[in-house]
Fold:
Amino acid sequence: MLALALLLVPLGVADVGIFPDLDGQVELQLPTFDRKTARVSHDPRHGMLLLWADDHALRAYPARPDGSPVRDVDRVALDGLPRGPAPPFADTDGDGIPDDLDVAIGARKVALNGARYSQEYRQLPYPGGDVPREQGACTDTVVRALRNAGIDLQKEIAEDIARARRVYSFVRSANASIDHRRVKTLLPWFERHWTRVDEKAPWHAGEVVFFDTFPSRPGPDHIGLVSDKSGPSGLPLVINNWDAGYRDGDMDLLPSVPVTHRFRPPARRTRGAARRP
Structure:
């Protein structure tokens, strides 16, 4: 198999999302991919090229109107790859970046931001409410990464509880300041609205991963996102905020902490679409 791992280079495209002051620092490590099956699509509206492998967007590159790369480093990386149409993909915030890649970019921004762990309760505005940027629990890591793709879990969870209360029967009194910051409440939403990934499937940056850190207790109790970087084990690192004394960042969790669920954004997402009851 002919394969190539590309070097870290700045993102270079306009990302509509969280922490815009960090946009210039975002560098995603591409996985090794098969150049025989990869392809590149051109989006003239957003001025970008998207690199695809197995219908997953691996990277976005700035492009000229004629579809040629803007930067020499991108030209070298994409040289010889076939052009073709993009597969169907969701782009919730309309910036041209597929949701799964947008979430991976958001996760990298969260890691760069490095919020210290805090599970302190705070009264939040709605929608779009967030705890102070320098603080956050494991759930806030995921909330912020998804907001980079235009997905507001605070609003999504509140609306889903109102829509399908029996699914969230454990929620005694709905509270939009905290419901989306609980692992137990997040799991039903991802089961209902995102694509469940088989445990043997290849890992992709931006996947949301639920962990069981206390096997004596039923159900997952921790959450994070698959990183674009790999650890000493050869498995991807996980961007998460582990516990008191930690900060948002990459950790080598997959070899030692049991995974209960993996999710990816659906290929298509329509605002206001009917959900499963």
In short: The CA atoms of residues 212 and 220 lie 4 Å apart.
